[in-house]
Design a protein that fits this description.
Elements (H helix, E strand, L loop, with lengths): L1 H10 L2 E2 L4 E3 L2 E4 L2 E5 L5 E3 L2 E2 L21 E5 L12 E14 L3 E6 L4 E2 L5 E2 L1 E7 L14 E5 L8 E11 L13 E6 L22
Antiparallel strand pairs: 1-6, 2-5, 3-4, 7-8, 8-14, 9-13, 9-15, 10-11, 12-14
Length: 208
């Protein structure tokens, strides 16, 4: 039994060590091109033996894939000219996006339009799929969020950004303005990605 144990030690040896960076190259049509910064790789562990036996060595390949977002917004400003009081809406802004994970879209700060005297015109917002107008329950008067589930075929999700203004007879003839923000959060982003830059978080430890 002791002899068998020694033979196993001589014939099978795996050496673990900290990962070493490995250069990653872009490949196009099977041809290896220059180095790329869009992927990183590390060489991990090792193998060493000295014996007369046949040997089979198991290799492991792990990949952590970040979430990406492809985003298109047709416009980022509305300009209205309103002749008479009324309840008006427009769908003039198109938003299209696709991602390899769930995306939460939040609308912040779309409050009333305000003039220099502090008078207000109420504002409501809605996001609806391209071919459908908003219904009565689709309008939002405050900040709100909606999570779009990952499209398994990763087709583009197309929505229209609607804005609604309610102008009443007592609203003064004046210029009114406001700003709001639409945020797209990648719900399945990896911790090694800096959410502000989309680049690698250099403070996140490498594989070990």
């Amino acid at each position: 039994m002791k002899t068998l144990f020694v033979v196993l030690l001589l014939c099978v040896a795996s050496i673990a060590f900290a990962g070493q960076p490995s250069i990653v190259y872009e490949v196009r049509d099977g041809q290896v091109l220059g180095p790329t910064d869009l992927a990183k790789a590390w060489k991990m562990d090792g193998w060493e033996s000295y014996c007369n036996a046949d040997q089979c060595v198991t290799f492991t390949v792990n990949a952590s894939l970040a979430q990406w977002l492809e985003l298109y917004i047709s416009h980022t400003r509305w300009e209205w000219r309103i002749l008479k009081p009324g309840d008006y809406a427009t769908d003039s802004i198109a938003i299209a996006f696709r991602s390899n994970g769930n995306v939460t879209v939040c609308l912040y700060g779309f409050g009333p339009l305000v003039n220099v005297d502090g008078d207000e015109i109420p504002v409501a917002t809605a996001l609806v799929y391209d071919s459908l107008p908003p219904g009565p329950g689709d309008w939002h008067w405050d900040d709100w969020c909606y999570t779009f589930q990952e499209d398994e075929s990763h087709d583009t999700i197309a929505v229209k950004f609607w804005i609604r203004l309610i102008v009443v007879p007592c609203d003064s003839a004046c210029e009114y303005t406001d700003t709001g923000t639409v945020c797209f959060t990648l719900d399945e982003q990896k911790p090694w990605v800096d959410r502000e830059t989309g680049e690698y978080d250099e403070d996140y430890p490498p594989p070990g």
